[in-house]
Amino acid sequence: MLPLFNRLISPANAHAFWIGVAFMVLGNFFFALNDTMGKILVGTFAVSQVLAIRSIGAFLVLGPMLWAGRGTGRIRRPWLQLVRIGVATGDTALFYAAVAYLPLADVFTFYMAGPIYVAAMSSVMPGGAVGWRRWLVILAGFGGVVIALGPSFTVYSPGILYALVGSFCYAGALMMNKVLVKTSDTALATLQALGALIGGGAFAFFQWTPPGAVDIGLLLLLGIVACLAHLLISRAVKLTPVSVLAPFQYSLLLWGIGFGILVFGDVPNERILLGAAIIATAGLFLLYSESRARGRLRADAVMKDFP
C-alpha cells in the first residue's frame, strides 16, 4: 500500500501536474479549516495553550514519518533555523490572536500580502535588485493593504495590530524557507512544531485553562489538520511549477470567506474584497515577473554552452 502511495505522489507520475494542483487546493482547505477551529478555540483557551497542544497534535502525524525516515537528516545552519522557528511561531500565534478579534477573511487578506513583503525585503539582499516596475506593483500591493485597513487604520484595534505584525512574520518565514531550501520538509515541520511546543508551553504555564476531553481532542485535531496542510502544500510545490500553483494559493481566501459565512455569519464588506483583489493581483504579477526573469537566465545559460 505504501509503495503505491509513494508512486502516486512521485514527480514521475504521469498525472503529477494535476495531483499537485489538487494538493494545493486541498492544503488550503485544511489551512482554512484549521484557522476556523482555532478561532473557535481561542474563545476559550489562551493562544499559548492552543499553540502548545496543537503542536503535540502535529507530532501525531510527524512521529510515524520521523520513525519511517529514521530522523530528519543533518540540520544545516542552526542559527538560521532558530530564526525561522521564531518567525514561524510568531506567524501562527499572531494569526490566532487576530482571529479572536477579526473575521477570518479580514485576517487572510492581511496575510496574503506576505509575498509582497518578501519582494520588498529581497531588494536589500545580495542579488535581489528590484526594478521600478516591480516597485510600482509592490506599492500597489501595499495600497491594497491600506484599503483593507480602511477606517480601522485610524482606530486602535488589537486584531488589526496582530494581523499586520503576523503578516510580516509570515513574510519572514517565507524568506527563511527560501534560505533553508536544502532542509527537508519533514525537518522544517518538526523544528517548527517543536519550537511552537516550547514557546507556547512556556507561556501557557501562566495562562492554563483545564480542558475537557472533547477540548483536548479538538486541540490535537487542530495540530493534525495544520500539519497535513503543510505537508500537502509542500508536496504540491514538488509536483507542479510554483507559477501554476500561485492562483490556486488564493483559494485560501475563498475557503476563509466560506467558513466565515457558514460558521460565524461574517460576510466580508466591499473594502476587504477590493483590498484582497488588489493584493492578489499584485502578488500574481510579481510571480509572473519572477518566472520570466528566471526563464531569461536559463536561456542565457543555455546560449553560453554553445560555441
Automatic annotation (TrEMBL):
Pfam families for this protein: EamA
UniProt key word Membrane: yes
Entry's transmembrane regions: 12-33, 45-67, 79-102, 108-128, 135-153, 159-176, 188-206, 212-233, 245-265, 271-288
Keyword entries, A-Z: Membrane, Transmembrane, Transmembrane helix
The keyword Secreted is annotated on this UniProt entry: no
Classification via InterPro entries: EamA_dom, EmrE-like
Annotated ranges, domain EamA: 19-148, 158-287
Any one GO cellular component localisation term in the record: membrane
Protein name per the record: S-adenosylmethionine uptake transporter
Source organism: Ancylobacter aquaticus
